[in-house]
Amino acid sequence: MNYLDSIKWDAQGLVPAIAQEQGSGDVLMLAWMNREALEKTVALGRAVYFSRSRNQLWFKGEESGHVQTVHEIRVDCDADVVLLKVTQLGHTPGIACHTGRHSCFFSVLKDGVWQASEPVLKDPQTIYK
Fold first, then answer.
1. What is this structure's pTM?
2. What is residue 72's three-state secondary structure?
3. Closest CA to 85 of 98, 104, 96, 71
4. Which residue from 13, 33, 67, 83 puts its CA 20 to 30 A from 5's CA?
5. Taken in order 85, 87, 93, 98, is the CA torsion positive or negative?
6. Where are the beta strands (DSSP E) in the chain?
7. Over the stretch 9-63, which tens digit does the pLDDT of each residue have?
């Protein structure tokens, strides 16, 4: 059986994909993949996602330069979530979030309020022209 046929794609033909930094174990982001995105990720060794808002493939870093090199691809026990172990390139430390932060998971719930727990490493206005 082809590895793509093992994935439990949703009704739109997508599967959630978590990007985890290989070195630190930080969860950087969650995105979506279709079959073509997963195939290209495997073939290229870099993260390729499916943008639901643009309805097209999204080569991570195509605009920002913040490319994710993929070292390992895993699937969960139900085969309905993909985990990419990546190195985040383009800035030190790596920026995965469009807000200019290391991780998209920078908001922490404290006393009933979401608070930013990570600094902006680079102004998003300078990342996306």
1. 0.90
2. strand
3. 71
4. 67
5. negative
6. 15-21, 27-33, 48-51, 56-59, 68-75, 82-88, 107-110, 113-116
7. 999 999 999 999 999 999 999 999 999 999 999 999 999 999 999 999 999 998 8
Of the pLDDT bands very low, low, confident and very high (cuts 50, 70, 90), residue 92 is confident
The strand pair at 82-88 and 107-110 is best described as unpaired
Q: Pull the structure tokens for residue 103.
A: 């991780």
The first and second tokens of residue 91, run together, are 């800035």
- Reading the block at residue 111, the tokens are 């006393």
**pLDDT of res. 129:** 62
For 19, counting Cβ atoms within 10 Å of its Cβ (0-12 exposed, 13-18 middle, 19+ buried), the class is: buried
Residue 111 CB contacts under 8 Å (≥ 6 apart), including other chains? none
Q: Torsion angle, CA of 23/103/15/10, rounded to 10 degrees?
A: 150
- Whole-number pLDDT of residue 46: 98
Fold type of domain 3-93:
Ubiquitin-like (UB roll) (3.10.20)
